[in-house]
Amino acid sequence: MSVEVDATDLAILRALAADATRSAGALGREMGLSQPATWRRIRRLEEAGVLKGRRLRLDAGRLGFGVTVFLGVKLATKGRVSLDDFERAVTAIPEVQVVEHVLGLYDYRLRIIARDLPDFERVLRRRIMTLPGVGEVEANVLLSEERLPGPLGAA
Amino acid sequence: MSVEVDATDLAILRALAADATRSAGALGREMGLSQPATWRRIRRLEEAGVLKGRRLRLDAGRLGFGVTVFLGVKLATKGRVSLDDFERAVTAIPEVQVVEHVLGLYDYRLRIIARDLPDFERVLRRRIMTLPGVGEVEANVLLSEERLPGPLGAA
DNA sequence: AATGAAACTACTGCCGG
DNA sequence: CCGGCAGTAGTTTCATT
């Protein structure tokens, strides 16, 4: 499943991870490669599925969503149908940003966004607690978040 | 703190959230706006801090990192110095992708990436458990993850 | 807010190692 | 197979109206 990614590819991915808007030409100049060569490498990484696309970095707070909460959810009943039903229902809630199926103390981890705490309480009571099969839930309110280079620093 | 974002801006953000590589011209054509008008709106959103940039979507598995683990961390001692020390130390671990300071049962949530489970055990024992002030930890192994439109669907 | 111009960027062939 | 060169189409970016 792994793909051949050499040191030059990693350098490109590192640079793009820092700023995904940079052009192939600018990247190539900085690392002694021509613009088409750099561009073809990026394209190859996309076709290989390593680079799956570019996502927006939005400031939820400035869009009026001041509260982000992580919710660990334990299902009361865990048949295959329960998982499917739960996922179908939870993905239909607009305030849910991310649905993670996990192994451990909880079955799902949700990233939920709300305008403020009263709004979050509404989502929790009316949307989440009424989901099919929901058992225990545990909430963590986000104070601050920092994203690091991650695997590209390790690789 | 909130910024004026009208329905057209939201439509642009929604379209870009679906595919961040689309050009201002293509977006404008699709929604009956000229290319410069669309481009100026995007730029205004960037200057207002609503649109903070673009991030890469990487397939960690294809880069050789097959295991993603979420780790809830409770600190044993929670003075201001403890928080600073912990954050400084944890951000230096290359396998740590995201550091979230949260309120609730745990103090921090970490997103950690490793090549496989033995590799994760190494990170956990040698890197995480030796961090200054670490108390209880709780791990969740990621099985699958789905990102939804989120606030743009709700807004 | 549209138009037009200048610079830049993405993308395609073709050729050399 | 990978990189450089040259060329075209499309995009950004800015000045002007």
UniProtKB/TrEMBL annotation, chains A, B:
A GO term, aspect molecular function: sequence-specific DNA binding
Family annotation (SUPFAM superfamilies): Dimeric alpha+beta barrel, Winged helix' DNA-binding domain
Keywords of this entry: DNA-binding, Transcription, Transcription regulation
Name of the molecule in the record: AsnC family transcriptional regulator
Annotated organism of origin: Pacificitalea manganoxidans
SMART domains cross-referenced by the UniProt entry: HTH_ASNC
One GO location term (cellular component): cytosol
Biological process per Gene Ontology, one example term: response to amino acid
HTH asnC-type domain location: 5-66
Claim: Ubl conjugation is one of the keywords in the record: no
Keyword Membrane set for record: no
